[in-house]
Amino acid sequence: HICVPCNMNFETRPLFSMECVVSIFPSRTRQLLTTRSWDFLGFPKTAKRSLELEGDVIVGMLDTGVWPDSPSFSDEGFGPPPSRWKGACLNFTCNKYIIGARAYNHGSSTAGLSPVDTDGHGTHTASTVAGRAVGNISLGGLAAGTARGAVPGARLAIYKVCSDDGCSDADMLAAFDDAVADGVDLISFSIGDDLPAQYFEDAAAIGSFHAMKAGVLTSAAAGNSGLESGRVCNVAPWILSVAASSTDRRLVDKLVLGNGKTIVGASINIFPELKDVPFVFPINGSCEAESLAVAGRSYKGKILLCALPSNGSGPVTVGAAGAVIGTDQPDIAFSLPLPAVMVSQAQFTRIMAYVNRTRNPVGTILASESAFDSEAPIVASFSSPGPNMITPSILKPDLSAPGIDILAAWSPLSPVSGRSVAYSIDSGTSMACPHATGAAAYVKSFHPDWSPAMIMSALITTATPMNSSRNRGGGELTYGAGQLNPVRAPDPGLVYDAREGDYVRMLCAQGYNSTQLQLVTDSDDAAPCRGGRRGSAADLNYPTMAVHAAPGKNFSAHFPRTVTNVGVPGSVYVAKLVSSRPELVRVAVSPRRLVFSQLGQRLSFTVTVSGVLGGANEFVSAAVVWSDGDRHVRSPVIVHTVDV
C-alpha cells in the first residue's frame, strides 16, 4: 500500500518485483490516543509573540477532522494564507484560519469524503495547537475558564485520516505526502499503536521521514499503553514523541456512603446529584451488558458496583441510576453516559466492605468538581513508557506535556453524556501531543529556518525536569527530558542538529540494508551502508542518551555530540554533570568547556557513561548540562538494566 506508481503505468506483476515498491506490509489500523494547561506550563496569553510571524506557520493535523464552526477557529482579523500554500479544501468550506481540509479512505482523498469531525478528537487537538482564546467556556459548568491554543495566529490544515474504525496506514501515508506537498511547516499526529514497530514497517515513521526531508517536524503521541514497560510508540528519532502528564487542576467526583464516609474518585460527571440510591453488586462484578442480562436480576434505579472496568453502557442498558467503577487508572476522569465515579481497587474494596456489613446500603454520587493538585506534574498512568525497543540508545518518550483533563473545542456531532457540547474534556497522549506541536510552532515562528531536529532539540533541552520520586518507577523512561517549557524553548542557547544523512547512517548502524534505505529515502545518502565501519546508533547527534546495561556487568558507552550556537556570539559554555547514583554510574565529558566566537558555530564533545548496575530493572538518571550563566542546555543521560 505504500507504492506510488513511478511512471503511472500500472502493471500486472507481483508488487514485490516493482521498482517503486519499498516494502510490503499489511495496512494496519491505528488508534487515536486520546485550559488550565497552558497557564500551568507558564505560557500565558501575554507571552512574547508576533501574530504576523505566527500567521506564516502552517500546522497539519492528521486526525478525525475538525468542526469548522467552533469559535476557536474564527478567522476574524486574519489576512490571506501564506503565498506558498498549495493545499485544497475538498468537500469543505475553509476560511483564513483553516486553510486546507481533506478526508481519506483507502489512501485516497477523493471528493465526497467530508473532513468534518464527527468524533470530537480532531477538533480538540486542533484547538489545543492553535485555537483562538474563547472565554467563559466549560463542560456543563466544569473546568470553567478560557480555552486557547499555543499559537492563535497560526494556520491549520486538516487531514482526516481516522474514522470510527480507527486510522489506516494507507490513509496516513497519503496524508503525510499531501501535507508536505501542500506546504505545512509541522505535523501533529495524535495517533499510535500498542507496541512500537520497526521503522520501515511503520507508516508514521515512513511518512514522517519524508516530512523531515522537506523540513517538516512531526510531533506525535507516545501511546496509551502505560501499564507495561517498553510500550512507547512513535519512537523514530526524527519524530518528537510526547508523554502525558497532569496539571495542578484535577477533576474529582465524590461518593458519599450511607454511613457518612466520603470516597474521592474521578469522573467527568455533569449530571445532577444522585442521592441515597441503593447499591447492588452484579454477579462476577462485571457491568458489561451481556453479563448483566444473563444474570437475570433487576438493576433499575440502583447504583451498580462494577469491580471490572466499564464504559457505562451496560448499566445504562439495564436502567441503572448510576455506577461505581473500579479501575487501575484512578488518575483519569472519563465522561460516562450516567452518573458515575471511578475509584481505585483499594477504594472499591472499602466500599464493598460497607455494602457487605450494611442491611440497606445506599450511596450519593455528587457532581464532579475541580481540585488543586500540588503534586503535579505527574506522568499519567496510561502514558506509554520506555525503554525504546527499536533504538535503545535514544531516550523515548522525548518529553511530557499536559494530557489529563484537558478542556478544548469539540464537535457537537459527538455527544458527551448525552449532550451536544461545543467544548469538552478529554485525556490521553493525544492531548499531550498538540501541546508539544503548539510549542514547536511557537519556536518555528521565531526561527523559520530551523531544521526539525533543531526545533526538537530546543524543546527537549529546555524541558523542566520532573520529580522522579512523585512519578512511577523509571523516571525519564516515563516522561523523557521533563515537562514542556514553551517560554524557554525559542532561546535554547545551543541545539543538536541532525539531517537526513545522519538518520540514514544511524539506520545503517541498526542493520538496515543500503538498497532498502535508498529506495525509501530516494537519496544517495544510503552510501554509508556499503561496507566499512557502520558505527553505532549512539553516534546520532541526539539531545538525549540512553544505555541498556546487563545486570552485574561493567559497561561503557560513548556518545559523540555536536552543538550549534544559536544564543549569542562570544559565549562560553561549561559542562555540569549530574547523576542520581554517582557511585554506580560515572558520566564524563570531553572537553568540559566550549568557547564560541560566533553564531552558527559548531563544536563537538564526547560523553562517556560507565559503571555497573547490580539488579534487574535498575535505573539511574543523569544529565549533562551546558551553561553560559544565562542559558542551561540539559541533556538527560539514563542507564537501565535489561535481562540478557
TrEMBL record:
Cross-referenced InterPro entries: Peptidase_S8/S53_dom, Peptidase_S8/S53_dom_sf, Peptidase_S8_Ser-AS, Peptidase_S8_subtilisin-rel, Peptidases_S8_3, SBT, Subtilisin-like_FN3
Keywords: Hydrolase, Protease, Serine protease, Signal
Domain Subtilisin-like protease fibronectin type-III: 539-639
Residues at the catalytic site: D63, H121, S430
Pfam families with a match to the protein in the record: fn3_6 (PF17766), Peptidase_S8 (PF00082)
GO molecular function: serine-type endopeptidase activity
GO biological process: proteolysis
Domain of life: Eukaryota
Record-annotated Peptidase S8/S53 domain positions: 56-481
PANTHER family for the chain: PROPROTEIN CONVERTASE SUBTILISIN/KEXIN
Family, per entry: Belongs to the peptidase S8 family.
Designated name of the protein: Subtilisin-like protease fibronectin type-III domain-containing protein
